[in-house]
Write a structure and sequence with these properties.
Alpha-Beta Plaits; alpha+beta; 5 helices
């Protein structure tokens, strides 16, 4: 039974998240429904990350085990045909590079991108894919505060109360914040890289750093909150629409010819 690696792009707005739900639409459900049009009894697909409701995917990676040996290009074309009209697309497809390759467990790093737009006017063209904040933010204090979150820490403060991870210890490899022009305002992009994340960790980071950028928190308060290991010390958790799983890294890239 050949295993295929699929790179998936999706707009998370209409979905209850990646994971299949009994009574709500999900990205996994849409993908499995498309696969069922090609072969009956396709095993459940697995993904590199279970994104939450409203979170998008630019570089999500999933695996599918099929009975038939498909040409990867033809498989991606067939899936994209059957995925319509759901806002989900297969942007790359390849045979798994090794017999034991797994979309989730073989991943060595995940990268999330969060987009935040500051301007007085409502956002129209990017509505639903950015977090709109009406006040101005300062970049340098957010960068200073973010530095406290890099490295291996107990991230209990920035962990959802319903997180099922066995340990709050995680290693964050990078948090980069850049500012750029945006029509009528400014855009801030937060890139966060780690092998794995706690539930709501990135959104907790960005919501807290926004408080720093707005001047409500001093940068050192982020370190104090981290050291407290207390969820109540976290800043507001920002909304999901600005967040996207941008890239998943493997020791052997399945999509590199």
């Amino acid at each position: 039974m050949p295993r295929y690696a699929l790179r998936i792009e999706y707009n998370g707005a209409p979905f209850a998240g990646w994971q299949r739900q009994a009574d709500q639409p999900s990205v996994q459900g849409a993908l499995e429904a498309a696969l069922a049009k090609l072969e009956p009894d396709v095993p459940s697909v697995a993904a590199a990350g279970r994104t939450d409701a409203g979170v998008h995917g630019w570089g999500q990676v999933a695996q599918a085990d099929l009975q038939k040996g498909w040409d990867p290009f033809r498989l991606s074309e067939a899936l994209n045909y059957h995925l319509k009209p759901a806002p989900v697309a297969v942007t790359a497809c390849a045979l798994a590079p090794t017999e034991d390759w797994h979309a989730r467990f073989s991943a060595v790093e995940r990268e999330y991108l969060f987009r935040l737009v500051t301007r007085r006017a409502p956002v129209t063209m990017d509505a639903g894919i950015v977090w709109h904040v009406a006040r101005e933010l300062e970049l340098a204090p957010m960068q200073e505060a973010a530095a406290h979150l890099i490295g291996k820490h107990d991230f209990t403060t920035f962990r959802s109360s319903i997180c099922q991870a066995a340990s709050p210890l995680k290693t964050v490899d990078e948090i980069t914040i850049v500012e750029q022009d945006y029509p009528g305002g400014r855009e801030f992009r937060f890139k966060v890289r780690a092998r794995s994340f706690l539930h709501n960790q990135v959104r907790s980071f960005v919501g807290t750093l926004e408080r720093v950028g707005a001047g409500s928190w001093a940068p050192h308060r982020v370190k104090d909150a981290l050291d407290a290991r207390d969820r109540s010390q976290c800043g507001p958790v920002c909304p999901p629409e600005g967040l996207a799983l941008a890239r998943v890294t493997y020791p052997v890239d399945p999509f590199q010819s």
